């Protein structure tokens, strides 16, 4: 073999015998070394093959470990919540109750006296005539309002528990969000009244001077709900805590965001201060309709939930407007007031939905 090689190569060939014996040693050494690695790999492959399939998650985009989220096979003990505040607060409390119950294997239980029972007939919870079912149960108090408290996903499921707090964070029920959205389907009577309102509005639009002709008329009609929270947020003690009220400049900016983006826009305004809203929320170019429901929270929420997009202001009612309507949601970024008590506990990432925008 080496005969045909040039003299310079012959030198290398002479040392070839030594190299090949080193090769053998090396291959032997590598073979011995590889034994544990190969065994580990085979063990891993067998393990992967034998592993049970991933559990099917209730909704996509879950933000916590999936294995923590289905303890429904226990479900021996009850979980309740103290309802405090009004509709928006109660909805946060119910949604958290449901999400925390699912994550721990506790069964939600609420009082029949809660306003939610009549407004949302599809809630998946047991109801009791007791005014406060968890009165004598151990309490779980939230760390602070306006932020997610992850310890709620590790409760003791061998005891009844009463949740105490406001639980204003989407993270408490993100793992069951489509389920919660379905449960917040309004009673048929409310829906009917709101349907009539939308029919009247549509007629007003078609007959009025706002009717868009030509190409623009072909683009779909977009209802933009505007919720203006004022009321108690104008009181001195609310202001001191850091609650702020959206100014008309913010609402104008938000309205022009939508009118720039879409051709056919109708604004639907609901508020706990309709008088202010009628004089301050206006448009020269687009139809603005005001809620006829004389500040009835459930009808207002049902109306705004039907809209395609939302302009929200401050408070949990406004939060649910954005959440139920889906579509694009604009929030008021000057809440809470800097340096205030609310600002010291407020965690924007836990409170505002990640896809919401501000103008
Ligand atoms: C959770 O467990 C229950 C009861 O075992 C089962 O019916 C349900 O499908 C499970 N849900 C998920 C999301 O795996
Ligand atoms: C949970 O509540 C239901 C309905 O009130 C009750 O029948 C049941 O005994 C409660 N479970 C426990 C473990 O207390
Ligand atoms: C906008 O909302 C209206 C009323 O709920 C609905 O009928 C319509 O389909 C929605 N339009 C779009 C583009 O989603």
TrEMBL record:
Superkingdom, taxonomy of origin: Eukaryota
In which broad location class does this protein mainly occur, judging by the first location in its UniProt entry? Answer: Golgi
Extent of the signal sequence: none
Protein keywords? Glycoprotein, Glycosyltransferase, Golgi apparatus, Membrane, Signal-anchor, Transferase, Transmembrane, Transmembrane helix
Q: Which GO terms describe its cellular component?
A: Golgi cisterna membrane
Question: Membrane topology per the record?
Answer: Single-pass type II membrane protein
Q: In the Enzyme Commission scheme, what number(s) does this protein have?
A: 2.4.1.-
Keyword Transmembrane, does the record have it? yes
Q: Which one GO biological process term can you cite for this protein?
A: carbohydrate metabolic process
Q: What is this protein called?
A: L-Fucosyltransferase
Q: Which organism is it from?
A: Ridgeia piscesae (Tubeworm)
